[in-house]
Each structure stands twice: as structure tokens, then as C-alpha cells.
């Protein structure tokens, strides 16, 4: 983070920040994989639009604020919790697969990568 008394630099930083937010929003709208952004407690704070491919009757707003563990099948919940805790402590976790519950009691495999 940069702090400056020079208004010109501040405006450039604001423009850069706006550009980063625009790129982030474009990624969330167009990335072909399902992307879920969590807080440190595992609550969903953002999710890509293609969530509707997995939960046909749900809108994005139906997921915001819910805990990701609610979507992990019961037999994978403990390992998921352990790996989430590990990721928080270590700062990252790469490519671990879990079974998630989908629409109409279906299941799908999701790959978890955290940073």
C-alpha cells in the first residue's frame, strides 16, 4: 500500500485499484471453472456465476454468507476442515479433491486450492 501527499499519485493508485477490481470481476464472470472466495472462517464472500451449472435453481446471492462446509459431503467434512485449518496456518493449500453435494442430491468432485 502506498500513501502519498501528491494528489496525482493518489489518483493513479485509485485508477490502478479500479482496474484491478474490474479485472477481478471479469474473471468471476467469465472463468470456466467454479471459483469460490472464502473468508478465514470458510464463509463464502464471492462466487463465480457458473455456480448455476452445479445448483440450477440457486442464484449467487443464495451462497453469499454460507459456510463452504455445508456443501461438502458428510464423509469429507472432517478432512476438509483439517485442510482448511492447515491452509490458514501455512498460508496456502494446493489441489486437494473433495466431494461436494450438488443439485438434486448429486455429487461432484471439487479441487480445493487456497492462498
TrEMBL record:
<protein>
    <recommendedName>
        <fullName>PAS domain-containing protein</fullName>
    </recommendedName>
</protein>
<dbReference type="Pfam" id="PF00989">
    <property type="entry name" value="PAS"/>
</dbReference>
<dbReference type="InterPro" id="IPR035965">
    <property type="entry name" value="PAS-like_dom_sf"/>
</dbReference>
<feature type="domain" description="PAS">
    <location>
        <begin position="20"/>
        <end position="91"/>
    </location>
</feature>
<dbReference type="GO" id="GO:0006355">
    <property type="term" value="P:regulation of DNA-templated transcription"/>
</dbReference>
<dbReference type="InterPro" id="IPR000014">
    <property type="entry name" value="PAS"/>
</dbReference>
<dbReference type="InterPro" id="IPR013767">
    <property type="entry name" value="PAS_fold"/>
</dbReference>
Amino acid at each position: 500500500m502506498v500513501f502519498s501527499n501528491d494528489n496525482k499519485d493518489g489518483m493513479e493508485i485509485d485508477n490502478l485499484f479500479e482496474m484491478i477490481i474490474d479485472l477481478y470481476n471479469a474473471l468471476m464472470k467469465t472463468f470456466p471453472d467454479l471459483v469460490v472466495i472464502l473468508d478465514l472462517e470458510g464463509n463464502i464472500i464471492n462466487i463465480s456465476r457458473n455456480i448455476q451449472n452445479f445448483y440450477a435453481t440457486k442464484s449467487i446471492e443464495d451462497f453469499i454468507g454460507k459456510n463452504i462446509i455445508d456443501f461438502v459431503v458428510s464423509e469429507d467434512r472432517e478432512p476438509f476442515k483439517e485442510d482448511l485449518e492447515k491452509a490458514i496456518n501455512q498460508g496456502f493449500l494446493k489441489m486437494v479433491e473433495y466431494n461436494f453435494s450438488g443439485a438434486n442430491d448429486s455429487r461432484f468432485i471439487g479441487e480445493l486450492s487456497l492462498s
